[in-house]
Amino acid sequence: MSNVYEQRVNDFMAKVIAKNPSEVEFHQAVHEVVESIIPFIEENPQYKDAKILDRMVEPERVIMFRVPWLDDKGDVQVNRGFRIEMNSAIGPYKGGLRLHPTVNLGVLKFLAFEQVFKNSLTTLPMGGGKGGSDFDPKGKSDNEVMRFTQSFMSELFRHIGPNTDVPAGDIGVGGREIGFLFGQYKRLRNEFTGILTGKGMEWGGSLIRPEATGYGAVYFAQEMLNTRNDSMNGKIVAISGSGNVAQYATEKATEFGAKVVTLSDSSGYIYDPAGIDADKLAFVMELKNVRRGRIKEYADKYGVEFFAGQRPWGVKCDIAMPCATQNEVNEEEAKTLLANGCFVISEGANMPSSPEAIEVYQNAKILYGLGKAANAGGVAVSGLEMSQNSMRFNWTREEVDAKLQQIMKDIHSTCVKWGKDGDYIDYVKGANIGGFVKVADAMLAQGLV
Ligand code: GLU
Question: Topology of domain 212-374, per CATH?
Answer without folding.
Answer: Rossmann fold (3.40.50)
